[in-house]
Amino acid sequence: LIGETVVDAITLGSQGVVSAEVLADARQLAVIDFEDSRRCEGLSGGQAQRVSLARAYYRALTHNTPILIADEPTSALDSDTELRVIDGLREFAGRGYTVVIASHRPAVIAAADHAIEVTA
Hints:
The protein is mainly alpha-helical.
């Protein structure tokens, strides 16, 4: 992750004032249940993964980007946290955004509205 703290990493690339409301929304969707002031260098793999997802949400919300693409967004998460993150992805899609996910995780595939299997 780039950024000294969690909030720095989530809002990376933001031009101007950071929206506290959008930041809170992105944190909730990505299940960020740890302090914004926490340093990025000490995060676990699953925490870093959720911070990256929160950054994608933050950018989509602040730039009104209609599509969010994620590659294995739950691969480092325990099953309970994975289900909470999937709920956030479904909520985001329910707001009218298109969410495209590449994943091998059964819970992610089961939550998809449409699935395309790619084989070698």
